[in-house]
Design goal:
Order of helices and strands of chain A: EEEEEEEEEEE
Shape of chain A: globular
Structural class of chain B: mainly beta
Radius of gyration of chain A: 13 Å
Radius of gyration of chain B: 14 Å
Strand content of chain A: over 45%
Helix content of chain B: under 10%
Distance between the termini of chain B: 41 Å
Oligomer: heterodimer
Largest sheet of chain A: 7 strands, mixed
Number of strands of chain B: 12
Helix content of chain A: under 10%
Number of strands of chain A: 11
Structural class of chain A: mainly beta
Strand content of chain B: over 45%
Largest sheet of chain B: 6 strands, mixed
Chain lengths: 113, 113
């Protein structure tokens, strides 16, 4: 199906475990983004990517790793999960341009116990 | 740096009431302005946008006008419905900003019968 998908939709993991959240888009958008959404903070940018093999830090990158070997995929890895990383994670994509909107995935709800 | 300020929520209205959600911004360049909506359990989706001063964005009965002189982009709807209950985010994007959106913290709207 066309669009932007995230998997898994829900994940429970333990402190210290590695977790990878997947994001896939079918539009061949050059830009992709990872956000976390927490009460009282709105959306905060974790990492973004302008193209395959080009990534950059956002506002809250600590504890996260990204890669982008293919244009359509942008996985986010928590190398050693902490309780403070319990959140809802959203992936988004867009083309370059000030007027271009970002398209958001449905989100992954991650709980770290 | 760039920033967006939205009115605090939640905003609770009766059906058919008039809605205004205030949004003001600070930007180093000439931004495009966006309103996104997030329905419960879903990702964000674009509601409307405006790319230059005095432009009016509109969609689904919602409107917002880009006011450069007051650096504002207030969201309005003449008659809200229960189905409009959601979280609304104001956002901006500037040229040369890495194609990133800067979001406000969101305003939750609850519409009651």
């Amino acid at each position: 199906d066309a669009g932007i998908t995230q998997s898994p939709r829900y994940k429970i993991t333990e402190t210290g475990r590695q977790v990878t959240l997947m994001c896939h888009q079918t539009w061949s958008h050059s830009y992709m983004f990872w956000y976390r959404q927490d009460l009282g903070h709105g959306l905060r940018l974790i990492y973004y990517s302008a193209a395959a093999d080009i990534t950059d830090k956002g506002e809250v990158p600590d504890g996260y790793v990204v890669s982008r070997s293919k244009t359509e995929n942008f996985p986010l890895t928590l190398e050693s999960a902490t309780r403070s990383q319990t959140s809802v994670y959203f992936c988004a994509s867009s083309e370059l341009g000030t007027a271009r909107e970002q398209y958001f995935g449905p989100g992954t709800r991650l709980t770290v116990t | 740096g760039d920033s967006v300020t939205q009115m605090e929520g939640p905003v609770t209205l009766s059906e058919e009431a008039f809605l205004t959600i205030n949004c003001t911004y600070t930007a180093t360049g000439y931004p495009s302005l966006f309103w996104y909506v997030q329905y419960p359990g879903e990702g964000l989706q674009l509601l409307l946008k405006a790319t230059k001063a005095d432009d009016k964005g509109s969609n689904k009965g919602f409107e917002a006008t880009y006011r450069k002189e007051t650096t504002s982009f207030h969201l309005e709807k003449g008659s809200v419905q229960v189905s409009d209950s959601a979280v609304y985010f104001c956002a901006l994007k500037v040229t040369g900003g890495g194609n990133k959106l800067t979001f406000g913290t969101g305003t939750q709207l609850k519409v009651e019968l």
